[in-house]
Structure formats: C-alpha cells, structure tokens
Amino acid sequence: MKVLVLGSGAREHALVTGLAADPGVDALYAAPGNPGMAQECEVRSVAMTDPEAVVALARELAVDLVVIGPEAPLVAGVGNALREAGVAVFGPDAAAAELEGSKAFAKEIMEAAGVPTSQSVTATSLAECEEAFDRFGAPHVVKADGLAAGKGVVVTSDRDEALAHARACLAEADRVVIEDFLDGPEVSLFVLCDGTTTVPLAPAQDFKRALNGDEGPNTGGMGAYTPLPWAPEGLVEDVIAQVAQPVVDEMARRGTPFVGLLYCGLALTKNGIEVIEFNARFGDPETQAVLQRLTSPLGTVLHAAATGELAQLPPLEWADKSAVTVVMAAENYPADPATGDVITGIEQANALEDVHVFHAGTSTAEDGELTTSGGRVLSVTALGADLADARARAYEAVGLIRWRGEHHRTDIAQLAEENRITIPQGGSR
Ligand code: GLY
C-alpha cells in the first residue's frame, strides 16, 4: 500500500512513524512534512488546504490512501476532492468536519443525537454573553465558533477576561459560544469511524495550559499520557454507546457520514460523561502517546476506516505499557514564539530505549543545523512498564535536548502516577 500523510506537526510525524512500521505499507510520503518526517519517508511540498493541489499530488504518487492530519484541509474540502477523484482518504468531508469547524453545529448534532454535553448559548451580542455569564456562573467558558487550532477557548473566573475574549470572537465571526463549566477530569477518546462502524483507540489525557499545575495560558497542548489508570471500568464502552455511535448515526442520517477520526473531548463530571468538544482529526499531542502503544498495523487500520471496512477488522492490539509525551516549546510560546534557535541532543534522546522524538516546529537551516521554527517544537514520547517508568524515560530524554529559551511542563502525568485524580460524585443522573 502507498500512503500519503498530509501535515507538518508532531502528530503527523507520529502517524508517519506508525505507518512506516506497518509491513503492508511499501511506500510512504508526507506533505509538506518536516525534518523529522524526512528521516522516515519522502517529503513533498504541497499547499495543504488546496484540494486540487492535494489531488494532483495523490495522483502523481499513485497512493492508495491519504491520511489527513490537521483540521484546516478537512474544513477546506480536501477530503471531498480526494474522494471525488477516487482516492481512499482517512478524514471526513467538509460537511462532517463541521463537528470541529463549528462549535454551534456540534451542539446541534449533540442535541439531535441525545449526547450529554454542557448547557450552552450561541450568542450574537455582548449583552447575550453577559446574560449567559449570569445564568451559568463562574468559571466562564467562551469558545470561538470557528477553527482556532485549540486556542479559541478561554476558561476563566475573571469576567472581564471572559468578556474581552467574547468581544474578540464576535469581531472575528458573528457568534460566540458560552458554556456552563464542566467540572471533572478530562479524557480524550479517539474513535475510528467509517461512516457506520466505530472502533475506539485507547483513552488519553492531555494538558492544555502552558504551565505546571494547569496554570498559564491555553496552548495547543503541552503533553499527554495513556492509558488512564484512574478511569472507571467500562468508560470506553460507555463513550461509544452514549457519544460516538449516536453522533456517527446522526451524521449518516443527515447524509453527511463521518469517515475518519472522531476526537471525543470529554469531562467525567458528577453527572457522568459530558462532551466538551469534538474534533474531526487525531489530537495533538495525545496521538504521539496513543500510537506508541498500538501494535496493530496502522496502515491497514486507517485504510479499513477509509473504505468502510472497520466491521471486518480484527480487534485492535495494544502493548501492555504506558506512554507519556512531553512537549518542548520555544521561548515565549504561546504568545509570540521565538524562532531560529539551534536544537541539540535529539540523537542522544532517540538513542534511549523506547523513546521517540517527534518533530513539529523544526527547520533545517542553510548550514544544515536544526533550528526552531514554531511554538511547539518537539514531542518527546516514551513507553514504560507503567506511568512512573514512562514519565522517568520521557523526562530523561527531555533533559538531553536543548535550545535557547526552551520550556516544558514538568508535571505531565504526575497526578495520575501519584493516584491523585478523582471523579466528582453525587450528581443527579
Ligand atoms: N489535544 C487537543 C487537540 O488536539 O485539539
């Protein structure tokens, strides 16, 4: 099978690494890729959100499968164009990607499908926002309606900050979503979908704030781990039954089947599972951890989803290990990341057993040196016998890598390792 991966981040690097390990994948390409992916496959340039350009590249390479990493090409209709051209594609059409592209649409689908989620108001004026803040109380949750690379959400008890974000969202679009805050630990469950059948991957948890202790600004994600030793028994089955399958059924009923990865962002509240958000693609950085544990052949699995054959797939197999990912970020990320700093130590880190360093914001300078070129620069992932072992390996690897101004959280997976995560009890359903 020949496979093309679209994207240039650590998530796509992890997909490339997973696909390269599948003996059924005999040719692998990434576009536009990054220097890390270039060590594992042929990298081509492409304007990722230009459907015609992607179709032309897929035809030139004669690939059997295109795996779309980020959300922007999905919302731009790259999935539609590839399907129309007869190319199997892992990633939904634009209409189904609206589950991520529009928070208001996602709420509408959840209501129609009877999926538990927070109460919300889609406001078109600041006065409506103020009313919703009064109704729901603090902390206030304010979500931009369109794509915002995970940074369109502000959760704050500071009403002025919430109003300022609402104002900024209303200036960008004509609506903003205000939600009731969901109290309880968060879970990311990735679900493979072929339009009809759903197959869950292993649940993970990510860390969205920049600083230890979930302090500081929201980011694209500073780390992740899997599995979740604290998760209640039957969690995955419950999410499939209460969330993923009803949504996939509702999308099919509307004539916009969901084919690809349904990212269920959940809170385990005192009232049970509640949906915080959906994404229409693999999560970053959870993917880097989750795929490290998957031992089933990734190309075969994604191809089955793309071609409506998930029901025929044997059960997925997983290494009986834990995985921890630590994101290493550039100076001033997320506000205004510095670029051009020389990175050292990746080879030494990769030489450690069960450690993989996935590239995101890296570039090769003219003199051949690897430099920073984005906010989240690297995702350092380690497998271990348990979370404590995986954490220790991941942080040992992080300690070998350096550049000016580098920063990372030191508490990824720490509460889980110390068995300090609890689910609120005593709800009404
Ligand atoms: N981990 C958050 C996201 O992928 O959007």
TrEMBL record:
Organism, by scientific name, is Brevibacterium ravenspurgense
Entry-linked HAMAP family:
GARS
**Keyword Lipid biosynthesis appears in the UniProt entry:** no
What cofactor does this one take? Mg(2+); Mn(2+)
Record Pfam families: GARS_A (PF01071), GARS_C (PF02843), GARS_N (PF02844)
Q: Which residues form the ATP-grasp domain?
A: 107-307
UniProt-listed SUPFAM superfamilies: Glutathione synthetase ATP-binding domain-like (SSF56059), PreATP-grasp domain (SSF52440), Rudiment single hybrid motif (SSF51246)
Task: Kindly tell me the pathway this chain contributes to.
Answer: Purine metabolism; IMP biosynthesis via de novo pathway; N(1)-(5-phospho-D-ribosyl)glycinamide from 5-phospho-alpha-D-ribose 1-diphosphate: step 2/2
Q: Does the keyword Membrane apply?
A: no
What catalytic activity is recorded?
Answer: 5-phospho-beta-D-ribosylamine + glycine + ATP = N(1)-(5-phospho-beta-D-ribosyl)glycinamide + ADP + phosphate + H(+)
Q: What is its EC number?
A: 6.3.4.13
- Name a biological process GO annotation: purine nucleobase biosynthetic process
Q: Keywords in UniProt for this one?
A: ATP-binding, Ligase, Nucleotide-binding, Purine biosynthesis
Q: Which family does it belong to?
A: Belongs to the GARS family.
Which protein, by its recorded name, is this?
Phosphoribosylamine--glycine ligase
| Any one GO molecular function term | phosphoribosylamine-glycine ligase activity
